[in-house]
Amino acid sequence: MGAEDDVECSSLHGGASTNVKNFTKVSLVPVTFLIFYGVSGGPFGVEDTVRAVGPLLTLVGFLIFPIIWSIPESLITAELCTMFPENGGYVVWVSSTLGPYWGFQLGWVKWMSGVVDNALYPVLFLDYIKSAVPVLAEGYPRTIAILVFVVALTYLNYRGLTVVGWVATALAIFTLLPFIVMGLIALPKLEPSRWFVVDLENVQWGLFFNTLFWNLNYWDAVSTVAGEIENPGKTLPKALFYAVPLVVSGYFFPLLFGTGAVPLNRDLWTDGYFSEIANIIGGVWLRLWVQGASAVSNMGSFLAEMSGDSFQLLGMAERGMLPDVFAKRSRYGTPPIGILFSASGVFLLSWLSFQEIVAAENFLYCFGMMLEFIAFVKLRIKYPAASRPYRIPLGTVGSILMCVPPTFFILVVMVLCSFKVMIVGFLAILVGLIMQPCLVYSDRKKWLSFSVSSELVDLQSGYHQVGEA
């Protein structure tokens, strides 16, 4: 695949170039914590797994699922990000293999999934602090609190990705510290027999898989800001390597101590319950610390998700998939229009319940991941000798086989969705199928301005110079 072919299959339109200034790149440490918050942000939101299946299956799930899903997804992300080191991430991968139409569809469902996902964090934030501030449990005070949360963190996103990355690093330390303290206090109170409780006749598989999947996906989200990362060929694989064990341990050990030190009542295990566990184990001071950590965690997750969503729109605009206005940058290097669109979607969706939001974003995410796996396999088969600063050390056949278990899990998650969620998901997909031809028509009629970045053309000219094997 030559440079001309790359440019042809990576954009909807031709046109004038756009100018991009050189902004400060993000280094290894903040990238690692951007991934941490893009995927996790700590154990807040995992409580429903215990309610769904009990302690044993929950603990086993958080050990097995990273092998089935998280590691393969992070490896694919590392390889394809170093192969295509530009903003837009997975949109670029799919556009370069399946064509711009399907690249746009992936971009649409992933952006929708990201916005739906980001709507969770104001909900989680308020669920954790409503016991301390009951007025925020419902009504106008809750709505105003959500609006303040969204506006304040949207402004911080506007100030720059480097700022967001270092803020995420500081927030992560504060987020994880109370659980380390809680674990130390819980040690004398642990009763290992509680870990092995299982009741197969009282299992909610849909809730379990949806919550598990939501807490351990989005490893590919960092790909949408690859163009903003310092030396992405080395930085991204290292950051993913460090982030995977950080995320998994941040879930597993709080669950281990929480289920082992407190008598089991599955009905109580819902979002926000870790603050009550902290109260039982350490007292009011520890509960307040966990509640504060939850607030901080949701801030970090919101920042990381919004950065990915807004830079994805910027990357799509630089490829001519969206109007030029989405490619405009502020003086801080951030895409203000993409930020505003993402923030508006978050606010509009934040009235939904936690479980409804998780199920809806999982359905959309699964559809997008199937396209990513197809793109990865096609690139390995069709362009085995193309330049890849990081290559999964399994060979082509091994890498393809690696995609089988997560693909099967995707189908399980989609089948277990409720009828309501399926309808909403299919309607969202249908909007994307219609929107792309409408944008192409708008370009032809000159109703909207589209163009391809000159810097993007220069970057793509070096992608596949190795040639085919």
Automatic annotation (TrEMBL):
<feature type="transmembrane region" description="Helical">
    <location>
        <begin position="422"/>
        <end position="441"/>
    </location>
</feature>
<feature type="transmembrane region" description="Helical">
    <location>
        <begin position="273"/>
        <end position="290"/>
    </location>
</feature>
<dbReference type="GO" id="GO:0015293">
    <property type="term" value="F:symporter activity"/>
</dbReference>
<protein>
    <submittedName>
        <fullName>Polyamine transporter PUT1</fullName>
    </submittedName>
</protein>
<dbReference type="InterPro" id="IPR002293">
    <property type="entry name" value="AA/rel_permease1"/>
</dbReference>
<dbReference type="GO" id="GO:0015203">
    <property type="term" value="F:polyamine transmembrane transporter activity"/>
</dbReference>
<keyword id="KW-1133">Transmembrane helix</keyword>
<feature type="transmembrane region" description="Helical">
    <location>
        <begin position="27"/>
        <end position="46"/>
    </location>
</feature>
<dbReference type="GO" id="GO:0005886">
    <property type="term" value="C:plasma membrane"/>
</dbReference>
<keyword id="KW-0769">Symport</keyword>
<feature type="transmembrane region" description="Helical">
    <location>
        <begin position="164"/>
        <end position="187"/>
    </location>
</feature>
<feature type="transmembrane region" description="Helical">
    <location>
        <begin position="140"/>
        <end position="158"/>
    </location>
</feature>
<keyword id="KW-1003">Cell membrane</keyword>
<feature type="transmembrane region" description="Helical">
    <location>
        <begin position="239"/>
        <end position="261"/>
    </location>
</feature>
<keyword id="KW-0813">Transport</keyword>
<keyword id="KW-0472">Membrane</keyword>
<feature type="transmembrane region" description="Helical">
    <location>
        <begin position="337"/>
        <end position="354"/>
    </location>
</feature>
<keyword id="KW-0812">Transmembrane</keyword>
<dbReference type="Pfam" id="PF13520">
    <property type="entry name" value="AA_permease_2"/>
</dbReference>
<feature type="transmembrane region" description="Helical">
    <location>
        <begin position="360"/>
        <end position="381"/>
    </location>
</feature>
<feature type="transmembrane region" description="Helical">
    <location>
        <begin position="393"/>
        <end position="416"/>
    </location>
</feature>
<dbReference type="InterPro" id="IPR044566">
    <property type="entry name" value="RMV1-like"/>
</dbReference>
<comment type="similarity">
    <text>Belongs to the amino acid-polyamine-organocation (APC) superfamily. Polyamine:cation symporter (PHS) (TC 2.A.3.12) family.</text>
</comment>
<feature type="transmembrane region" description="Helical">
    <location>
        <begin position="53"/>
        <end position="71"/>
    </location>
</feature>
